[in-house]
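We treat protein structure as text, and this decision shapes the records that our systems exchange. Because each token names a local backbone shape, the row as a whole describes the fold. For reference, a complete record is included directly beneath this paragraph.
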Amino acid sequence: MTPHARRALLVPLTVTIALPLALYYVLRAQGTVQWQALLISGAIPAAHAVVTGVRRRHVASFDLLVVALLAVSAVTSLVSGDPRVLLLKDAAIPAVLGVWIGGSLFLARPFAFHFGDHLRRGAAKEQAEEAWRESPAYRQSLRSLTLLWAGVQMLDAALSTVAALTLPVDAVPVTGRIQSFALLGLVIVITVRRSRRFRARHGISLFGTAAAGGAEDVPVRQEADGRA
């Protein structure tokens, strides 16, 4: 994995999972009440989304949704004093993400293709576009992965909802992160295995790792020629 790809994966994991979790338990150890600790720690992903949007002069719709969910749940928790409202916000995020990923199947390019765009550089972007145009197997594989990722997010949301309503409040953040990491690890393993099998069978990289000398585009043209 290239340094750029590692950053593309590690930065969101750190900002959305590791830092909020650590901050929550630091605040609780200092005597901060549960709902306030959840609110403050949950503000990290929202602040990161806003700062990133300002820097790029474009705020993604999903980032806006994260900020909106935090704001609504914060007001509700302030009125009710119930920290479980904020825990349900954490369950709502993967639910919305799952719907968003699944909905991309009805667009020109599914989520898995756009995710790969964050990892591709240079000629790999052109090779991916050519593969999408010319290879039905390439399109089917990316759509299949998109459906898998959407389903896992919905599963995460369902399990998080049950945990938010039934487990002790202080146990939910850590169990939820362990759950999310476990599901993420499962998705990564399945994705890597499918990607390797696809590349071995078709000679095309699903996520843009270019072969030396541009050899990866040859099987795409061969597949297209075979249909002609």
Summary: Confidence is low (pLDDT under 50) at residues 210-228. DSSP finds nine helices and no strands in the chain. Residues 99 and 127 are 29 Å apart (CA to CA). The two ends are 36 Å apart (CA to CA).
